[in-house]
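Standup notes, structure subgroup. Blocker cleared on the iron/sulfur cluster input:
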Amino acid sequence: MAASAHSASQLLLAWYDAYARVLPWRSPPGAPPPDPYRVWLSEVMLQQTTVAAAIPYFERFTARWPTVGALAGANDGDVMAAWAGLGYYARARNLLACARAVTARGGQFPGTERELRELPGLGAYTAAAVAAIAFGEAATVVDANVERVVARLFAIDEPLPGGRAAIRRSAESLTPPDRPGDFAQAMMDLGATICATRNPRCLLCPLSDTCAAFAEGRAADYPVKTAKPVRPQIVGTAWWIEREGQVWLVRRPAKGMLGGMRALPSDEWSARGNGEGAAPLNGQWRDCGSLVHVFTHFSLTLSLRVYSGSDLASLSPADGEWWPLDRLDEAGLPTLFARAAQLALAGTGE
Ligand code: SF4
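Run returned:
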């Protein structure tokens, strides 16, 4: 870089003082740090969604469970339902496990990156973010936004994922000992608002004088990525069983995809076969279309079949529950099954 790492971090902090985004989990630049609970909760949510999508979830969670102790005492099903739509339901289970671990140690989050890593579900990124933002530790926070900014600032041309080590070393060289929390949030803001994936707005960037990619005129070429493997295609079937304004819902096994969530009955999704496993009832079924849902590691084509028989006697309360259709939005169905329910309701004329 043309300027030193020190001057780059000071330029960025000055920009942050003027342009920091106002977000419900943040303290303003230079103010005392925010509650670690709020930092941790927001960071877990932001790992899987955008800031705009996370804000209403964050507001609902903190209104209902304002402290880590309140969340630790929550009913598992209520938390899973409140999480519905955010995806990655294992994170919701880890969220509860972590809240309970913090409560078991007196209700205080530990104040260092190293100790935070020991809590259930707290990965390297979240531990560094909480340590820097809530506790002022000079931890280096590297998420996808920061990765992009740093790869460009230093024109790191080693392709990801192999290039991550070089990016981390460069990010560490930038992290200042004073105001590390504001610095981490400034990097996040720069990546989100200026150093965008496509069309970075270099002319508005406080770091353009120090940026190697800008000097090369190749900002959008970084970070360099290796070609992604093709996502596997999986097929499955879900079953819609309706009776007197109610639909039959089951609870998915605690372990595995969408574990512990309420769902429509479905078969074992698989890359093989035609997706037609054993239906939960014998009798008449009719096709009601299909939908494609893309998970991180595979793409699922889910066929929907609607029961048109009347023999419901073999459905046991031990296996599921009748849920009122007019309160379906309160069932906490994960997005896949909420979409399947819409398909069924459109097809059955509700
Ligand atoms: Fe990103 Fe452009 Fe700023 Fe470099 S100058 S950090 S590429 S926005």
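Discussed briefly. The chain has two domains: 2-221, 233-348.
Next: hand off to the docking folks.
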